[in-house]
Amino acid sequence: MSHRAREIRSGSETCYCSYRRRSSHDRVYAGRTTVAMTVKERIETLAKPKLSRSTLSYGPSLSWGNQQTMWQLSNAAKNTEPSERILLLAQPKRNLSTQEDLKPQWEYSCGRQSPIIQTSGAARKAVNSERIDQLAQPKNHHRNYTENRPMYEFSCGRSSPVEGPAQTAKTAAERERTNQLAQPKKVHPEHQASREVQTIPSQAARNTRPTERLEQLAEAKKRPDGPFREPEWPVCKKAMKAQSTERTRELARSKGLVEGFQGNRNVMWNVSKSAKQAVATRRVEELSVPIQRESMDHVQFNPDVFKVSETAKKAKCSARIEELAQPISRK
User: Fold this and answer.
1) Which of 48, 55, 119, 185 gives a 20 to 30 Å CA spacing to 42?
2) pLDDT by residue (tens digit) across 185-194?
C-alpha cells in the first residue's frame, strides 16, 4: 500500500484517512498521532457547547447564616478544652449604652423625638393647664366644609370604603369561586423555615479541646518593642567614592525640549514704551466711539421700532453676500 494518504471523494468533500505514515505536520497527544481534521470536522468541534463549570464541585456545599462547619470535626478537636486566649476572645462586647455618662447622648440623640425614660410620679399627678387643654383639642373643620364621600371611599391605596357592609351583602349567598379565593395561600410542601441564627451548642462541642495548631494560631501576634534603625544613617566611604557608569549618566540626563519649542506666554506682560507713546489715528478714534442707542424705556412705546423699511425690502445684496449666504454642501 502506498505511504501517501488515500483520498475518498464523496461529492465535493474530501476525507483524509488516518492510516498513513506520520509526517512532521501531524500532532502528537499522549503518544498518539492525529491527522489534521477537515473543515467539516473542525466546524462540528467548534459547534459543540462549552462545558459549564457551574456544575463542577470544588469543595463542600456551604450555606451562609448558620454555624455548621466546613469540614467534619475530629474527635480530638471535640474533646479539647479552650485556652485562655480563646476564652478571652469569646467574651461579648461591652455595651456602652448602659453607662451613666452616655445617658444624655442616648436620650437626646439625632432623630429621637423624646427621651426613653420612665415618667416620674410628679408628672403623672400633675394637672393640665388651660393652655395644654386648648392645644389638646382636635382641629375642627370649616363651617362651609362638605365631605367628598366618593373620593374618601375610593381613594388611592384604599382597598375598601370606610363604612359598614350593606344588608344585602350580609345576606348574599356564598359562591364556590368566592370560597376558593377566600382560602389562604398554602405553604409549599418542601418549604423549610429559616433556621435561627442563635443555636444551642451541643454537649460534644462544649467538651472539645483545641489542637496544638489551633492554640498556636490563637496566640496574639508578637510585635517587637525595638530598637529599630534610625531614619538617618552615615554613608560608607565606598559609596561616597563610587563613580557612576556611562549608562547611568545617560539615563540620568533630563529629557530635552523639541527644537523650535516655545513656552506659554504669560497672561500679564509689560507694555512697551512705544505702545504707551503711540497716538491713535482718526479712523481708530472714530471706531472707538460707542453706538448711541435709545433705551428700552423709550423704544417700548414706539410701535414701528421693529418694522422693516421699504428701502430695506427693495435692496439687493452684493455678490459676496450671496456667496456667503450659500449653505455648506456636505456629502
Assistant:
1) 55
2) 888 888 888 8
